[in-house]
Write a structure and sequence with these properties.
The protein starts with 8 loop residues before the first helix and ends with a strand. With about 350 residues, it is of the alpha+beta class. The chain has one domain: Glycosyl hydrolase domain, family 43 (Tachylectin-2, Chain A, 5 Propeller), CATH 2.115.10. The protein has one helix at about 10-65, and strands at about 70-80, 80-90, 100-105, 115-120, 130-135, 140-145, 150-155, 160-165, 175, 185, 185-190, 190-200, 205-215, 230-235, 240-250, 260-265, 275-280, 285-290, 290-295, 300, 315-325, 325-335, 340-345. It is built from one helix and 23 strands.
């Protein structure tokens, strides 16, 4: 008879113990693997999300720092006209559209010249009605809409700045006296002209005007002009009596070469007041803060193909700016050609 082999109890316990240890090790490996996977995944997603956020921020910053530039739009009013001034009349009671009135002056080349001032209107800044003559013996119209909805026009006459008043913006009655005379401490002025007037938040009027000196700016450059033109400024409580404040902007430097003309005051999108004007190269602006004008102007626009030309043959002049349907329009004169415009895009 064969001998029957019986497994010993100690061997059975040893096998069970081994199986248990192996099982525990496998479970621990699975848990470790799962933990590593979730930790690695979370870290990867965090990095990806961070990169994505950074990329999004960079894209947003790039989008917000894209600088808008003035794009030439063509002619607004053709003819021998210059010195445009545009006034926002506010919403129309009939159509609800904003309406704009332009004032502009005849150039000496126009037939039967008698220092005429014309006006035209528009709803979009592009198409303007036929101009209507409203005044003679006046140049450089500068029109301010008053708090009582009247209009006051400042203009040059007999080498000084005078004014006229209107209830409808078309029919003006001359006001007695002179607003700005030719006296300016420390300067010998031939004439005052090309003013711009704005009503400040505190109810004070601010005016910038050009004073002409009958002598060229001293430079090695051969200048087109044999006169020097500087900006002065004044303030007023009533728009009639003015207190002169002196130089607003000194053009006697190698940037402007003695020429600053066609002042235009306005409130920009950042609520700061800007002074736009033109010089030999084209159109510039500077800021007005705390009662002073910044001395270094910013170059903005020329319609000449070569923007580096110091003395453009027919630079854009006498700018006037207005915001129409959320777009800034700049109207400017082109000598003997008319009033042109550009938009900020």
């Amino acid at each position: 008879m064969d001998e029957i082999q019986v497994e010993k109890p100690d061997d059975d316990r040893s096998k069970k113990k081994t199986i248990l240890i192996v099982s525990i090790v496998l479970v621990l490996l699975v848990l470790a693997g799962g933990l590593y996977y979730f930790l690695f995944k979370e870290k990867t997603e965090t990095v990806l999300n961070t990169d994505s956020t950074q990329e999004s921020k960079t894209t947003d910053q790039t989008a917000t720092t894209i600088k808008k530039v003035w794009q030439d739009g063509g002619v607004a009013i053709a003819g021998e006209y210059a010195d445009a001034e545009v006034v926002d009349l506010g919403p129309s009671t009939s159509s609800g559209q904003a309406n704009y009135r332009m004032y502009y002056a005849a150039e000496p080349e126009v037939a039967n010249f008698n220092s005429q001032i014309y006006t035209a209107t528009s709803t979009d800044g592009v198409t303007w009605t036929a101009g209507v003559e409203i005044k003679q013996g006046a140049t450089f119209p500068d029109v301010a809409k008053l708090s009582d909805n009247r209009f006051r026009m400042y203009y040059q006459n007999n080498q000084v700045i005078k004014s006229a008043i209107s209830t409808d913006g078309v029919n003006f009655t001359d006001e007695p006296g002179t607003r700005i005379d030719k006296t300016e401490a420390g300067f010998t002025i031939e004439n005052m002209a090309a003013s711009s007037t704005i009503l400040l938040a505190d109810g004070t009027y601010l005016m910038v005007y050009r004073g002409l000196i009958n002598a060229p700016y001293s430079t090695t450059e051969k200048l087109p002009n044999q006169t020097t033109q500087l900006f002065f400024y004044a303030t007023s409580a009533d728009g009639l009596t003015w207190q002169k404040k002196g130089l607003a902007l000194d053009s006697r430097n190698e940037t402007l070469l003695g020429l600053s003309d066609g002042a235009e005051l306005l409130t920009w999108d950042d609520s700061k007041i800007r002074l736009y004007f033109w010089s030999y190269k084209g159109i510039y602006h500077t800021n007005y803060e705390n009662g002073l004008f910044a001395s270094v102007p910013t170059f903005d626009f020329t319609n000449n193909k070569d923007s580096n030309i110091k003395f453009a043959p027919n630079p854009p002049g006498d700018p006037t700016l207005v915001k129409i349907k959320n777009t800034w329009f700049m109207f400017y004169g082109q000598h003997t050609k008319g009033i042109y415009y550009a938009t900020l895009q």
